[in-house]
Amino acid sequence: MIQVSKLNKNYGTVQALSSVDVEIEPGRITAVLGPNGAGKTTLIKSILGLVKPDSGVITVDGIRVNGESRYREMIGYMPQLARYPENLTVTEIVDMIRDIRKSASTSEGRSASTRTDSHNSKNRTADKFHAGEKSAGRPENNGKPAEGQVPAHDGSPDLEIWERFGLDSEKDKAFRTLSGGNRQKVSAVLAFLFRPRVLFLDEPTTGLDPVSSSILKDKILAERDRGTTIVLTSHIMSEVQELAEQVVYLLEGEIYFERTVAELLEETGQSTLERAIAVKLGRQPKVTAETGATS
């Protein structure tokens, strides 16, 4: 699904990424981990097209990043910190993002005949949109696009996480008045809204209470089961162990190791991912059960 080859990025004299090669497999949850300054954010923003690498190639479902923009239609992104217009209400923000997305997806390839019949076209689009909302949002073809094609959004938003978070009580509040947890909930709604084939989740449970965190994790796992490719960053290793199948660990701008969670636990003989990574980095002594001695 996502292939990164020989990726390099410098910020002045600081090398953020050094010849990074990684492949993110479709339909899995891959965690991109590493200490602060390891290059995680630069790698993810390079894939999103928000940072232009100095060299290297990135493709998403065969579409080259920084070559074409249409790959963005299949991506959802939940940033660590949600920044939206502070004066808008929650409903207005959701409507704004839907309008922007709709405008972007219809601006390319619009024919002259469509423009001359704009009034009828808008009415048909609105009818289709409302019909999609009432149908529980089932996408066409079971959500599976034709091979080699970016799927067109069918107009039905995914509002499941909105309903499970109970955001109706917050919908008319200005974004500036929301708590940190509710801001995070809005960000999650927007990430899932367009039924993306690829999801980038940056510290997704930050600020969420235990119940809301569990709801979001359930949604992430459900989307994985539907075939969505998910890239996750988190400093909470128990969360990564619960959600991710694959770990890509960055250190000083390079891939230090890439393993499945199961492989890491087996290789290190540890029961938790946190301790397994510490052993892998050579920073966690192993303690023998018999004597308590370290090795």
Structure characteristics:
295 residues; 10 strands; 36% helix; Rossmann fold; alpha/beta; 6-stranded mixed sheet; 4-stranded antiparallel sheet
Q: Flag low-confidence runs.
A: 111-153, 288-292
What integer value in Å does the Rg equal?
A: 21 Å
Main sheet characteristics: 6 strands, mixed
CATH superfamily: P-loop containing nucleotide triphosphate hydrolases
Number of strands: 10
Shape: globular
Reading the helices and strands in chain order gives EEEHEEEHHHHHEHEHEEHH
* Count of alpha and pi helical runs: 10
What is the name of the CATH topology? Answer: Rossmann fold
Helix content: 25-40%
| Quaternary structure of the protein | single chain
Into which percentage range does the β-strand content fall? 15-25%
CATH class: Alpha Beta
User: Whole-Å distance between the termini?
Assistant: 41 Å
Mean pLDDT over the residues:
82
- Please state how the strands of the largest beta sheet are arranged side by side: 6-7-8-3-9-10
Architecture (CATH level 2) name: 3-Layer(aba) Sandwich
Structural class: alpha/beta
Number of domains: 1
